[in-house]
Amino acid sequence: MGLMDESMSLETTGVAAVLLAAGGSRRFGSPKQLALWKGQPLIRHMAETLSASGFEWLVVVVGFRSHQARSVLGPVLGPQTNCVDNPDWSQGQSSSIRIGLDGLPPHIGAALFQPCDQPLLTPQTLNRSIDRHRKHPEAIIVPRYGEHRGSPVLWPRRFFQDLRSLEGDTGGRALLCRHREHIVELPVENADEGRDADTPEALERLSRL
C-alpha cells in the first residue's frame, strides 16, 4: 500500500495512528520497545492502546530487532494494522516517519504519530485528539500536559510532505515551530500521560504512578 497524491480530496477523511518503534534505544541501554511494562512488551502495550482507540488504521514501524518486535505483537496485528520494517532505523526518527507515511492507505486524511515510550497514555485521550481533529480538520492537534506540549501529535494530510522532508533523529517539533499558527492544543487533565521513559529507571517510576 502506498500513499496517493498529497492533494486533499473528499475521500481522504480517515484518521490513522503510526507507532514509532524502530529505534535502537541508545539511552535506554536495551531495546526499549521490548522492555516489559506490567508483564508485556512495551511495543505491544502501546499498539493495544492505539488499537483500542478510534483510529481507522494502525501502522507499526519496526526496525532494530524487528523480528522480535513482530513476534511479540501477536494478535494486535489485525486486518486494520500494517507492520512495516524500517531498514534505515539507525538514521533516526525521521526515517521511521517516512516509512510510516508509506504504510498508510490512500483514504487516510490525517495521522497521529505515537512514540513507543509513553505507556500512561489512554485511549480516551487519543479519542479526544481524533474528536478535536474532526472539529479542526486543517489544524495540527498537539496535546498539552500542564505547562508543556508533548506527544502524540496529529497531523492532517496537508503537512505530510513537510514530514517527509525531515532528516536525522528529529520528529515533527521543528515543523511545529514553522507552522505554529496552525496548531490547536488539546489540554490533558492527567499530565502523567505525557511522561515518557528514556531509561529503565524512568519506566519503573512510571509503573508506580
Briefly, what is this?
The protein has 209 residues and is of the alpha/beta class.
Radius of gyration: 16 Å
CATH architecture descriptor name: Alpha-Beta Complex
Full CATH superfamily name = Spore Coat Polysaccharide Biosynthesis Protein SpsA, Chain A
How much strand?
15-25%
CA distance, first residue to last residue: 40 Å
- Mean pLDDT value: 91
Strand pairing plus helix content: what structural class?
Answer: alpha/beta
Largest sheet features: 5 strands, mixed
**How many strand segments?**
10
**Largest sheet, spatial ordering of strands:** 5-4-1-6-9
Fraction of helical residues: 25-40%
Q: List low-confidence stretches.
A: 1-10
Number of domains: 1
What is the helix/strand order?
A: EEEHEHEHEHEEEHHEH
Anisotropy-based shape: globular
CATH class placement: Alpha Beta
Number of helices: 7
CATH topology: Spore Coat Polysaccharide Biosynthesis Protein SpsA, Chain A
Keywords:
single chain; 209 residues; alpha/beta; Spore Coat Polysaccharide Biosynthesis Protein SpsA, Chain A; 5-stranded mixed β-sheet; 3-stranded mixed β-sheet; 7 helices; disordered N terminus
Please give a structural write-up:
The chain is an alpha/beta fold and 209 residues long. It has a single domain (14-207), classed as Alpha-Beta Complex (Spore Coat Polysaccharide Biosynthesis Protein SpsA, Chain A), CATH 3.90.550.10. Helix content is 29%, strand content 23%. It has seven helices and ten strands. The strands form three sheets. The chain has a five-stranded mixed sheet, with helices on both faces. The protein has a three-stranded mixed sheet with strand order 8-7-10, with helices on one face. A two-stranded antiparallel sheet has the order 2-3. The protein starts with 13 loop residues before the first strand and ends with a helix.
